[in-house]
Amino acid sequence: MAPPVPEKDDEEPPPAKKFAFPSALTVLALVTVAIWALAFLIPAGRYDRDADGAPLSGTYHRVEGTQSFTDRLNDLFLSPVNGLYGIQDLRTHEVGPSLTGSLYGSAGVFLFVLAMGAFITVVFATGALDRGIALLAHRLRDRGALLIAAVMLAFSVLGTVEGFAEETLGFYGLLVPMMLALGYDRLVAAGCAILGAGIGVLCSTVNPFATGVASSAAGISLGDGIALRFAMWMVLTPVTILYVVRYARRVQRDPAKSLCGFLPGDRERKATGADVVEPELTRLHKTVLVLVALVFAFMIFSVVPWSSALTGEADATPYPWEPDWSFPQLAALFMCAAVLVGLVARLGEAKLSSTIIQGAADFISPALVIMLARGVTVIMNNAQITDTVLHSIEGAVKGTSSGLFAVIVFLVNLPLAFLIPSTSGHATLAMPILAPLADFAGVSRAVVVTAWQAASGWMNLWVPTTAVTIGGVALAKVGYDTYLRFVWPLLAVLLVLICGFLVLGATI
Questions:
Q1: Radius of gyration over every alpha carbon of the chain, rounded to an integer in angstroms
Q2: Which regions span the lipid bilayer (predicted)?
């Protein structure tokens, strides 16, 4: 006899789908369509410009739009293509893929991101970087505060130099048992990874995915403003480390003060944590780590405007030994470095080739985000509304002090960082509008870049739209609400310090 068929009312309703915030690619696609539609309503206008192409305050004037509906539809259709290799006509300033003039698209940055992805992936394939951090953690396992400081400092250095953030997700399997063995809780492990790398990215000095992309979009060198950003990193990193160490010591002294508590078995791990076998750092691993350090050191040397930095004159003649490199040369550098590391590590031709391809593939997402964001600026440029938007914002900041202007730029970027968690996309989208405002306020464009990256980095320390935060708390098995209770006092302190540095940078 067949079992009775359950009544329709007895059936369990399907589980409700949870809301998932759209990806950066989706957000930028929606932004593209929205800006294209708004271009029909915003009047065309233009500033007069100086010899360097900077807009001159007080010269804005309305112009007659020349685009037909078909032209605008074609711009929408070609926006990703123009965002990659659009050429700007020197006479009409229009951007298109088959015009004659200067490159307006982001092809240089696009290729640089792929080359950087290839290099980072090859380095990780050698096992040198994660083995080095594991060895550091093991040797300091009996000195808890020093271990926390060393791990966070290592993550912060990698964050400020090359945007090391998502890569921390691979270290939770090491950090969680290590911190529990020292008598800390899982929140300490999450703080080490999220805040250690996050504060480095917030204070990016030469991070190509943040500072590099933003500097390119702002029309300045990657090395411009590096002194201010380095000073921020030197202050904010110790503050963040001390915050985590202070909490860790409090939990070690009194486990009842842990904000996240302990899972079954967590407290028992303290007795067995010292039995972990020390990871071995071979000669090959040491050689790879030295090569990585030399490559990044040379990158910093090649992008810093040494003549301006040493003389204090913005228009100083470059020294003969000054490389003055930009993204095309840096893309070639990291591609060659990826091959060199692969050869030194004896990965073999087949594995090296596949690893380089895989690395470029893993980084295609931020590269596409840059391309799409640049495509939005092409639509605004061809519709001649960029200067109109700039003029409206100029009125809002006109008359403000340079320090207040820098803080306003920081605050304006906070909601943008939430909507577009991709630093590359956020920079490419915002900089063409924000950078010229610095010219009106008499502030260096490098200060605007620093304000932008600080806003993006500050938000990415806690917003749930980033894989680093939401993935990190999941791997550490800590509630997101618990993490917010842990981090909000630090966020308040960082907010005050950031604003102070921006005011200082804008006024000196």
A1: 25
A2: 20-42, 103-125, 145-165, 186-210, 230-248, 288-307, 327-348, 400-421, 433-455, 461-480, 487-506
